[in-house]
Amino acid sequence: MVIDAFTQGKTRPEEDPIPTLRFGVNYTPRRGWFHAWHDFDPAHAREDLDQIAALGLDHVRVFHLWPLLQPNRTFIRPAAVDQLARLVDVAGEAGLDVLVDGVQGHLSSFDFYPEWTRSWHHRNVFTDPEAVAAQAELMRTLGRALAGRPNLIGLQLGNELNNLVEHNPVTPAEVDRYLDTLLAAAREHLPPDRLATHSAYDAAWYGDDHPFTPEASARKGDVTTVHPWVFSGDCARRYGPRSPQVRHLAEYGTELAKAYAEDPDRPVWVQETGAPEPHIPAADAPDFARATVRNAAGCEGLWGVTWWCSHDVDRSLADYPELEYTLGLFDSRGRAKPIATALAETVAEVRAGHHPARPRDTALVLDCTPATRSVSGPGGAYFEAWMELRATGALPAVVLAARADDAAYLAARGIKELVRVP
Fold first, then answer.
1. With contact defined as beta carbons under 8 Å apart, do 203 and 166 qualify?
2. Segments of 64-204 assigned E as strands
3. What is the pLDDT of residues 20-60, one digit of tens each?
4. 337 contacts: CB under 8 Å, gap ≥ 6
5. Other beta carbons within 10 Å of 125
6. Contact 112, 66 (CB under 8 A)
7. Are 188 and 143 in contact (CB under 8 A)?
8. C-alpha–C-alpha distance, residues 271 and 228, integer Å
9. Residues 295-326: pLDDT tens digits?
10. Domains of the chain, with CATH numbers?
Protein backbone atom coordinates (compact mmCIF):
# COMPACT_ATOMS: atom_id res chain seq x y z
CA MET A 1 0.00 0.00 0.00
CA VAL A 2 1.12 3.58 -0.67
CA ILE A 3 0.56 6.26 1.97
CA ASP A 4 0.09 9.94 1.07
CA ALA A 5 0.35 12.61 3.74
CA PHE A 6 -2.34 15.29 3.73
CA THR A 7 -3.30 18.37 5.74
CA GLN A 8 -0.12 18.30 7.79
CA GLY A 9 -0.56 20.20 11.03
CA LYS A 10 -4.29 20.72 10.48
CA THR A 11 -6.88 19.62 12.97
CA ARG A 12 -10.49 18.78 12.52
CA PRO A 13 -12.73 21.82 12.92
CA GLU A 14 -14.71 22.18 16.11
CA GLU A 15 -18.17 20.68 15.82
CA ASP A 16 -21.18 19.88 17.93
CA PRO A 17 -21.06 16.53 19.72
CA ILE A 18 -22.83 13.67 18.01
CA PRO A 19 -26.30 13.16 19.53
CA THR A 20 -26.80 10.21 21.83
CA LEU A 21 -26.63 7.00 19.84
CA ARG A 22 -29.91 5.20 19.24
CA PHE A 23 -30.26 1.45 19.71
CA GLY A 24 -33.31 -0.48 18.65
CA VAL A 25 -34.69 -3.48 16.83
CA ASN A 26 -36.74 -4.23 13.76
CA TYR A 27 -40.07 -5.42 15.11
CA THR A 28 -41.30 -8.80 13.87
CA PRO A 29 -44.54 -9.80 15.63
CA ARG A 30 -44.13 -13.03 17.59
CA ARG A 31 -47.59 -14.34 16.73
CA GLY A 32 -48.14 -14.75 13.01
CA TRP A 33 -45.15 -12.72 11.80
CA PHE A 34 -46.37 -9.82 9.58
CA HIS A 35 -49.49 -11.79 8.77
CA ALA A 36 -50.56 -10.50 12.20
CA TRP A 37 -51.78 -7.39 10.39
CA HIS A 38 -54.74 -9.39 9.09
CA ASP A 39 -56.13 -9.51 12.64
CA PHE A 40 -54.06 -6.95 14.54
CA ASP A 41 -54.18 -7.32 18.32
CA PRO A 42 -52.76 -4.35 20.29
CA ALA A 43 -52.42 -6.50 23.43
CA HIS A 44 -50.16 -8.96 21.63
CA ALA A 45 -48.13 -6.09 20.21
CA ARG A 46 -47.78 -4.52 23.66
CA GLU A 47 -46.45 -7.79 25.06
CA ASP A 48 -43.79 -7.95 22.33
CA LEU A 49 -42.87 -4.28 22.70
CA ASP A 50 -42.56 -4.50 26.48
CA GLN A 51 -40.05 -7.31 25.99
CA ILE A 52 -38.06 -5.13 23.61
CA ALA A 53 -38.12 -2.14 25.96
CA ALA A 54 -36.97 -4.32 28.86
CA LEU A 55 -33.66 -4.84 27.00
CA GLY A 56 -32.98 -1.11 27.28
CA LEU A 57 -33.59 -0.46 23.58
CA ASP A 58 -35.13 2.88 22.65
CA HIS A 59 -36.85 2.37 19.31
CA VAL A 60 -38.39 -0.05 16.84
CA ARG A 61 -38.75 -0.04 13.09
CA VAL A 62 -42.17 -1.30 12.01
CA PHE A 63 -43.69 -2.58 8.78
CA HIS A 64 -47.23 -2.89 7.49
CA LEU A 65 -47.96 -4.80 4.27
CA TRP A 66 -48.48 -2.79 1.10
CA PRO A 67 -51.40 -4.93 -0.24
CA LEU A 68 -53.29 -4.45 3.03
CA LEU A 69 -52.67 -0.71 3.12
CA GLN A 70 -53.40 -0.01 -0.55
CA PRO A 71 -55.40 -2.85 -2.14
CA ASN A 72 -56.43 -0.62 -5.04
CA ARG A 73 -54.36 2.05 -6.74
CA THR A 74 -56.78 4.76 -5.64
CA PHE A 75 -57.88 3.30 -2.28
CA ILE A 76 -55.87 3.39 0.95
CA ARG A 77 -57.70 1.51 3.71
CA PRO A 78 -58.41 3.79 6.70
CA ALA A 79 -58.61 0.75 8.99
CA ALA A 80 -55.10 -0.35 8.03
CA VAL A 81 -53.71 3.14 8.58
CA ASP A 82 -55.47 3.23 11.96
CA GLN A 83 -53.82 -0.10 12.87
CA LEU A 84 -50.43 1.37 12.12
CA ALA A 85 -51.16 4.48 14.16
CA ARG A 86 -52.33 2.30 17.05
CA LEU A 87 -49.08 0.32 16.92
CA VAL A 88 -47.08 3.56 17.09
CA ASP A 89 -49.13 4.58 20.13
CA VAL A 90 -48.65 1.19 21.81
CA ALA A 91 -44.91 1.47 21.24
CA GLY A 92 -44.97 4.90 22.84
CA GLU A 93 -46.75 3.46 25.87
CA ALA A 94 -43.89 0.97 26.14
CA GLY A 95 -41.35 3.82 25.99
CA LEU A 96 -40.23 3.21 22.40
CA ASP A 97 -39.84 5.57 19.47
CA VAL A 98 -40.83 4.30 16.01
CA LEU A 99 -39.66 4.49 12.41
CA VAL A 100 -42.45 3.47 10.03
CA ASP A 101 -41.65 1.86 6.68
CA GLY A 102 -44.32 2.54 4.08
CA VAL A 103 -44.15 0.42 0.91
CA GLN A 104 -43.75 -3.28 1.80
CA GLY A 105 -42.64 -4.36 -0.68
CA HIS A 106 -40.17 -6.99 0.42
CA LEU A 107 -39.82 -8.71 3.79
CA SER A 108 -37.80 -11.77 4.79
CA SER A 109 -37.60 -13.26 1.26
CA PHE A 110 -41.27 -12.64 0.41
CA ASP A 111 -42.52 -9.92 -1.92
CA PHE A 112 -45.84 -8.21 -1.22
CA TYR A 113 -47.38 -6.56 -4.25
CA PRO A 114 -50.95 -5.24 -4.42
CA GLU A 115 -52.93 -7.01 -7.12
CA TRP A 116 -53.19 -3.81 -9.14
CA THR A 117 -49.46 -4.13 -9.88
CA ARG A 118 -49.55 -7.81 -10.94
CA SER A 119 -50.51 -10.23 -13.74
CA TRP A 120 -52.35 -8.53 -16.63
CA HIS A 121 -52.54 -5.38 -14.49
CA HIS A 122 -48.75 -5.34 -14.23
CA ARG A 123 -47.22 -1.94 -13.68
CA ASN A 124 -43.54 -1.29 -13.10
CA VAL A 125 -43.59 0.03 -9.54
CA PHE A 126 -40.55 2.25 -10.16
CA THR A 127 -41.37 3.73 -13.55
CA ASP A 128 -45.13 3.62 -14.19
CA PRO A 129 -46.31 7.19 -13.48
CA GLU A 130 -49.62 6.13 -11.96
CA ALA A 131 -47.98 3.45 -9.78
CA VAL A 132 -45.42 5.95 -8.51
CA ALA A 133 -48.14 8.52 -7.86
CA ALA A 134 -50.11 5.93 -5.88
CA GLN A 135 -47.11 5.13 -3.68
CA ALA A 136 -46.50 8.83 -3.14
CA GLU A 137 -50.10 9.22 -1.99
CA LEU A 138 -49.62 6.31 0.43
CA MET A 139 -46.59 8.07 1.94
CA ARG A 140 -48.54 11.33 2.23
CA THR A 141 -51.40 9.50 3.92
CA LEU A 142 -49.10 7.85 6.44
CA GLY A 143 -47.37 11.14 7.14
CA ARG A 144 -50.68 12.90 7.68
CA ALA A 145 -51.87 10.16 10.05
CA LEU A 146 -48.68 9.82 12.09
CA ALA A 147 -47.03 13.25 12.11
CA GLY A 148 -48.55 14.25 15.44
CA ARG A 149 -47.21 11.22 17.33
CA PRO A 150 -44.43 12.47 19.64
CA ASN A 151 -42.59 9.12 19.46
CA LEU A 152 -42.45 9.02 15.65
CA ILE A 153 -38.86 9.06 14.39
CA GLY A 154 -40.07 9.45 10.84
CA LEU A 155 -41.06 7.65 7.66
CA GLN A 156 -39.04 5.36 5.45
CA LEU A 157 -40.15 4.61 1.91
CA GLY A 158 -40.04 0.85 2.38
CA ASN A 159 -37.84 -2.07 3.24
CA GLU A 160 -35.01 -2.67 0.76
CA LEU A 161 -37.01 -1.59 -2.26
CA ASN A 162 -34.13 -2.59 -4.54
CA ASN A 163 -35.13 -6.23 -3.97
CA LEU A 164 -37.94 -5.52 -6.44
CA VAL A 165 -35.74 -4.63 -9.43
CA GLU A 166 -35.73 -8.16 -10.86
CA HIS A 167 -39.40 -7.86 -11.79
CA ASN A 168 -39.36 -4.10 -12.29
CA PRO A 169 -36.45 -3.14 -14.55
CA VAL A 170 -35.21 0.37 -13.85
CA THR A 171 -32.23 2.60 -14.61
CA PRO A 172 -30.26 4.62 -12.05
CA ALA A 173 -31.81 7.84 -13.36
CA GLU A 174 -35.31 6.38 -12.97
CA VAL A 175 -34.45 5.22 -9.44
CA ASP A 176 -33.39 8.76 -8.60
CA ARG A 177 -36.69 10.19 -9.86
CA TYR A 178 -38.64 7.54 -7.96
CA LEU A 179 -36.82 8.21 -4.69
CA ASP A 180 -37.10 11.98 -5.07
CA THR A 181 -40.84 11.73 -5.68
CA LEU A 182 -41.56 9.46 -2.72
CA LEU A 183 -39.24 11.26 -0.30
CA ALA A 184 -40.94 14.56 -1.12
CA ALA A 185 -44.31 12.97 -0.46
CA ALA A 186 -43.10 11.44 2.84
CA ARG A 187 -41.74 14.80 3.95
CA GLU A 188 -44.90 16.73 3.06
CA HIS A 189 -46.70 16.33 6.41
CA LEU A 190 -43.77 15.56 8.72
CA PRO A 191 -42.47 18.11 11.20
CA PRO A 192 -38.95 19.34 10.35
CA ASP A 193 -37.36 17.32 13.17
CA ARG A 194 -38.62 13.95 11.85
CA LEU A 195 -36.73 11.83 9.35
CA ALA A 196 -37.65 10.92 5.79
CA THR A 197 -35.41 8.06 4.68
CA HIS A 198 -35.06 5.12 2.31
CA SER A 199 -33.19 1.81 2.46
CA ALA A 200 -31.53 -0.67 0.12
CA TYR A 201 -29.90 -4.03 0.58
CA ASP A 202 -26.15 -4.43 -0.03
CA ALA A 203 -26.32 -4.66 -3.83
CA ALA A 204 -26.57 -0.86 -3.79
CA TRP A 205 -23.03 -0.75 -2.40
CA TYR A 206 -21.42 -3.89 -3.82
CA GLY A 207 -23.39 -4.84 -6.94
CA ASP A 208 -21.77 -4.03 -10.28
CA ASP A 209 -24.15 -1.83 -12.31
CA HIS A 210 -26.99 -2.27 -9.80
CA PRO A 211 -29.54 0.49 -10.54
CA PHE A 212 -29.79 1.59 -6.90
CA THR A 213 -26.51 3.41 -6.42
CA PRO A 214 -24.33 4.25 -3.41
CA GLU A 215 -24.80 7.91 -4.30
CA ALA A 216 -28.59 7.58 -4.01
CA SER A 217 -28.28 5.88 -0.63
CA ALA A 218 -25.79 8.43 0.69
CA ARG A 219 -27.31 11.63 -0.69
CA LYS A 220 -31.10 11.23 -0.69
CA GLY A 221 -33.19 11.38 2.46
CA ASP A 222 -32.13 12.72 5.83
CA VAL A 223 -29.71 9.96 6.89
CA THR A 224 -27.87 7.16 5.12
CA THR A 225 -29.13 3.71 6.04
CA VAL A 226 -26.95 0.61 5.65
CA HIS A 227 -27.86 -3.09 5.96
CA PRO A 228 -24.49 -4.86 6.34
CA TRP A 229 -25.48 -8.52 6.29
CA VAL A 230 -22.89 -11.23 6.84
CA PHE A 231 -24.35 -13.37 4.03
CA SER A 232 -23.78 -10.62 1.43
CA GLY A 233 -20.90 -11.70 -0.75
CA ASP A 234 -20.89 -14.88 1.34
CA CYS A 235 -18.87 -12.91 3.88
CA ALA A 236 -19.23 -15.23 6.88
CA ARG A 237 -18.59 -18.38 4.89
CA ARG A 238 -15.71 -16.79 2.99
CA TYR A 239 -13.83 -15.53 6.06
CA GLY A 240 -15.38 -17.45 8.97
CA PRO A 241 -18.06 -16.43 11.51
CA ARG A 242 -15.48 -15.23 14.06
CA SER A 243 -13.29 -13.41 11.54
CA PRO A 244 -12.39 -9.73 11.73
CA GLN A 245 -14.10 -9.28 8.36
CA VAL A 246 -17.39 -10.36 9.90
CA ARG A 247 -17.03 -8.56 13.21
CA HIS A 248 -16.02 -5.28 11.57
CA LEU A 249 -18.59 -5.51 8.75
CA ALA A 250 -21.05 -2.96 10.17
CA GLU A 251 -18.18 -0.60 10.95
CA TYR A 252 -16.91 -0.98 7.39
CA GLY A 253 -20.38 -0.43 5.94
CA THR A 254 -20.69 2.77 7.95
CA GLU A 255 -17.35 4.11 6.74
CA LEU A 256 -18.08 3.12 3.13
CA ALA A 257 -21.39 4.97 3.26
CA LYS A 258 -19.72 8.11 4.62
CA ALA A 259 -17.40 8.21 1.60
CA TYR A 260 -20.29 8.60 -0.83
CA ALA A 261 -21.97 11.43 1.09
CA GLU A 262 -21.59 15.01 -0.10
CA ASP A 263 -22.06 16.32 3.46
CA PRO A 264 -19.16 15.16 5.67
CA ASP A 265 -21.46 15.35 8.70
CA ARG A 266 -24.30 13.28 7.27
CA PRO A 267 -25.28 10.58 9.82
CA VAL A 268 -25.22 6.87 8.99
CA TRP A 269 -27.73 4.42 10.48
CA VAL A 270 -26.83 0.72 10.72
CA GLN A 271 -30.46 -0.13 10.24
CA GLU A 272 -30.26 -3.88 9.78
CA THR A 273 -27.64 -6.29 11.02
CA GLY A 274 -28.14 -9.68 12.56
CA ALA A 275 -26.79 -13.14 13.28
CA PRO A 276 -28.37 -15.55 10.78
CA GLU A 277 -27.72 -19.24 11.25
CA PRO A 278 -25.83 -21.11 9.87
CA HIS A 279 -23.68 -18.15 8.77
CA ILE A 280 -23.28 -17.20 12.45
CA PRO A 281 -23.72 -20.32 14.64
CA ALA A 282 -25.91 -19.76 17.68
CA ALA A 283 -22.93 -20.22 20.01
CA ASP A 284 -21.13 -17.34 18.28
CA ALA A 285 -24.11 -15.00 18.08
CA PRO A 286 -23.62 -13.19 21.44
CA ASP A 287 -19.97 -12.36 20.71
CA PHE A 288 -20.90 -11.30 17.18
CA ALA A 289 -23.49 -8.89 18.57
CA ARG A 290 -21.01 -7.45 21.07
CA ALA A 291 -18.31 -6.93 18.45
CA THR A 292 -20.69 -5.50 15.87
CA VAL A 293 -22.12 -2.86 18.21
CA ARG A 294 -18.77 -1.93 19.78
CA ASN A 295 -17.04 -1.56 16.42
CA ALA A 296 -19.87 0.39 14.82
CA ALA A 297 -20.04 2.68 17.85
CA GLY A 298 -16.43 3.61 17.15
CA CYS A 299 -17.51 5.40 13.95
CA GLU A 300 -18.04 9.13 14.14
CA GLY A 301 -21.39 10.25 12.78
CA LEU A 302 -23.23 7.03 13.61
CA TRP A 303 -26.96 7.66 14.15
CA GLY A 304 -27.53 4.27 15.74
CA VAL A 305 -27.87 0.52 15.35
CA THR A 306 -31.16 -1.33 14.81
CA TRP A 307 -30.90 -5.11 15.15
CA TRP A 308 -32.72 -7.57 12.93
CA CYS A 309 -34.94 -8.72 14.44
CA SER A 310 -37.05 -8.85 17.60
CA HIS A 311 -38.68 -12.32 17.44
CA ASP A 312 -37.96 -15.55 15.61
CA VAL A 313 -40.33 -16.63 12.86
CA ASP A 314 -42.44 -19.48 14.25
CA ARG A 315 -41.64 -22.78 12.54
CA SER A 316 -45.35 -23.43 12.13
CA LEU A 317 -45.09 -20.95 9.25
CA ALA A 318 -43.82 -22.58 6.07
CA ASP A 319 -41.39 -21.83 3.26
CA TYR A 320 -39.02 -19.31 4.80
CA PRO A 321 -35.29 -19.66 4.17
CA GLU A 322 -33.79 -21.44 7.15
CA LEU A 323 -31.95 -18.38 8.38
CA GLU A 324 -35.22 -16.45 8.80
CA TYR A 325 -36.34 -18.75 11.61
CA THR A 326 -33.42 -17.89 13.90
CA LEU A 327 -32.81 -14.16 13.62
CA GLY A 328 -34.75 -12.96 16.66
CA LEU A 329 -33.53 -11.67 20.00
CA PHE A 330 -36.47 -13.64 21.39
CA ASP A 331 -37.59 -17.08 20.30
CA SER A 332 -41.07 -17.73 18.95
CA ARG A 333 -42.36 -18.36 22.49
CA GLY A 334 -41.13 -14.96 23.64
CA ARG A 335 -38.09 -16.15 25.60
CA ALA A 336 -34.98 -13.98 25.48
CA LYS A 337 -32.04 -15.69 23.77
CA PRO A 338 -28.40 -15.27 24.80
CA ILE A 339 -27.91 -12.78 21.99
CA ALA A 340 -30.56 -10.53 23.57
CA THR A 341 -28.61 -10.40 26.82
CA ALA A 342 -25.36 -9.72 24.96
CA LEU A 343 -26.94 -6.91 22.94
CA ALA A 344 -28.51 -5.31 26.01
CA GLU A 345 -25.25 -5.41 27.96
CA THR A 346 -23.27 -3.95 25.06
CA VAL A 347 -25.75 -1.15 24.49
CA ALA A 348 -25.44 -0.27 28.17
CA GLU A 349 -21.64 -0.23 27.84
CA VAL A 350 -21.75 2.12 24.86
CA ARG A 351 -24.19 4.44 26.60
CA ALA A 352 -21.84 4.52 29.60
CA GLY A 353 -19.06 5.75 27.31
CA HIS A 354 -16.94 2.59 27.24
CA HIS A 355 -16.69 2.40 23.42
CA PRO A 356 -16.51 6.00 22.23
CA ALA A 357 -16.24 7.12 18.63
CA ARG A 358 -12.69 7.98 17.62
CA PRO A 359 -11.43 10.25 14.84
CA ARG A 360 -10.11 8.59 11.69
CA ASP A 361 -7.27 10.55 10.19
CA THR A 362 -6.17 7.82 7.76
CA ALA A 363 -8.33 6.83 4.78
CA LEU A 364 -8.09 4.12 2.15
CA VAL A 365 -8.80 5.45 -1.34
CA LEU A 366 -11.62 3.67 -3.20
CA ASP A 367 -11.21 3.81 -6.97
CA CYS A 368 -14.10 2.07 -8.73
CA THR A 369 -16.79 2.66 -11.32
CA PRO A 370 -20.43 1.52 -11.29
CA ALA A 371 -19.30 -1.54 -13.25
CA THR A 372 -16.55 -2.42 -10.72
CA ARG A 373 -18.39 -1.64 -7.50
CA SER A 374 -17.86 -5.22 -6.30
CA VAL A 375 -14.24 -4.41 -5.38
CA SER A 376 -15.67 -2.83 -2.24
CA GLY A 377 -17.66 -5.93 -1.27
CA PRO A 378 -16.55 -9.11 0.51
CA GLY A 379 -13.95 -10.86 -1.63
CA GLY A 380 -13.09 -7.63 -3.43
CA ALA A 381 -9.60 -6.16 -3.45
CA TYR A 382 -10.66 -2.95 -1.73
CA PHE A 383 -12.65 -4.71 0.98
CA GLU A 384 -9.72 -6.96 1.79
CA ALA A 385 -7.25 -4.05 1.82
CA TRP A 386 -9.45 -2.11 4.25
CA MET A 387 -9.76 -5.12 6.52
CA GLU A 388 -6.00 -5.72 6.35
CA LEU A 389 -5.40 -2.12 7.39
CA ARG A 390 -7.94 -2.42 10.19
CA ALA A 391 -6.21 -5.57 11.47
CA THR A 392 -3.05 -3.51 12.11
CA GLY A 393 -4.96 -1.47 14.66
CA ALA A 394 -5.55 1.47 12.34
CA LEU A 395 -8.98 3.07 12.09
CA PRO A 396 -9.33 3.59 8.34
CA ALA A 397 -11.91 5.85 6.81
CA VAL A 398 -12.93 5.54 3.15
CA VAL A 399 -12.36 8.27 0.55
CA LEU A 400 -13.47 8.09 -3.07
CA ALA A 401 -10.71 8.59 -5.60
CA ALA A 402 -12.63 11.57 -7.01
CA ARG A 403 -12.21 13.38 -3.65
CA ALA A 404 -8.62 12.34 -2.95
CA ASP A 405 -7.21 15.67 -4.17
CA ASP A 406 -9.83 17.82 -2.46
CA ALA A 407 -7.89 19.29 0.46
CA ALA A 408 -10.89 21.15 1.90
CA TYR A 409 -13.00 17.99 1.87
CA LEU A 410 -10.25 15.94 3.49
CA ALA A 411 -9.77 18.58 6.15
CA ALA A 412 -13.50 18.66 6.87
CA ARG A 413 -13.36 14.91 7.52
CA GLY A 414 -10.18 15.19 9.58
CA ILE A 415 -8.18 13.03 7.16
CA LYS A 416 -4.42 13.57 7.18
CA GLU A 417 -3.15 10.51 5.34
CA LEU A 418 -4.39 8.60 2.32
CA VAL A 419 -3.57 4.96 1.71
CA ARG A 420 -3.83 3.65 -1.83
CA VAL A 421 -4.48 0.05 -2.82
CA PRO A 422 -1.61 -1.19 -5.05
1. no
2. 97-101, 106-107, 110-111, 152-156, 195-197
3. 799 999 999 999 999 999 999 999 999 999 999 999 999 99
4. 285, 328, 329, 330, 331
5. 24
6. yes
7. yes
8. 9
9. 999 999 999 999 999 999 999 999 999 999 99
10. 1-15+359-422 (no CATH), 16-358 (3.20.20.80)
